[in-house]
Amino acid sequence: MVSAKKNRVYKITVSLWSLAMAFPKGHRITVHHSDRYPSRLLLPVIKAPR
Q1: Is 15 a domain residue?
Q2: Residue 9 CA: distances (Å) to CA of 19, 35, 49
Q3: Over the range 7-46, which residues count as b (16 or more CB within 10 Å of their CB) and which as e?
Q4: 36: which DSSP letter?
Q5: Is position 48 within any domain?
Q6: Domain for residue 13, yes or no?
Q7: Residue 33 CA to chain centroid, in angstroms?
Q8: What angle do CA 27, 5, 40 make, to 5 degrees?
Q9: pLDDT > 70? residue 13
Q10: Rounded Cα–Cα distance for residues 33 and 30 (Å)
Q11: Backbone angles phi, psi at 39, to 5 degrees
Q12: How many structural domains does the chain have?
């Protein structure tokens, strides 16, 4: 495990097949993005279980 250092950018790849997170309505997440460090985040929208 590596400790993150302030003002450093790290590449992280997460397999969503083994991870699931539900974000409540109105929740915000932050992703760093710049010309030097482009980012991509794909979040599928699914219906809530009944």
Answers
A1: no
A2: 22, 13, 36
A3: eeeeeeeeeeeeeeeeeeeeeeeeeeeeeeeeeeeeeeee
A4: S
A5: yes
A6: no
A7: 12
A8: 45
A9: yes
A10: 9
A11: -125, 155
A12: 1
pLDDT tens digit string along 16-43?
Answer: 666 677 788 888 888 878 888 888 877 7
Of 28, 26, 22, the closest CA to residue 48 belongs to 22
Structural domain harbouring 49 = 22-50
27 belongs to a structural domain: yes
> Hunting for tokens 């539900």 — which residue is that?
22
Let me know: does 33 contact 10? Beta carbons within 8 Å: no
Predicted local confidence at residue 2, as pLDDT:
66
Tell me the pTM. 0.34
**Do the Cβ atoms of 39 and 30 come closer than 8 Å?**
no
Amino acid in the structure at residue 40: R
Say how far apart CA 40 and CA 33 lie, in whole Å: 8
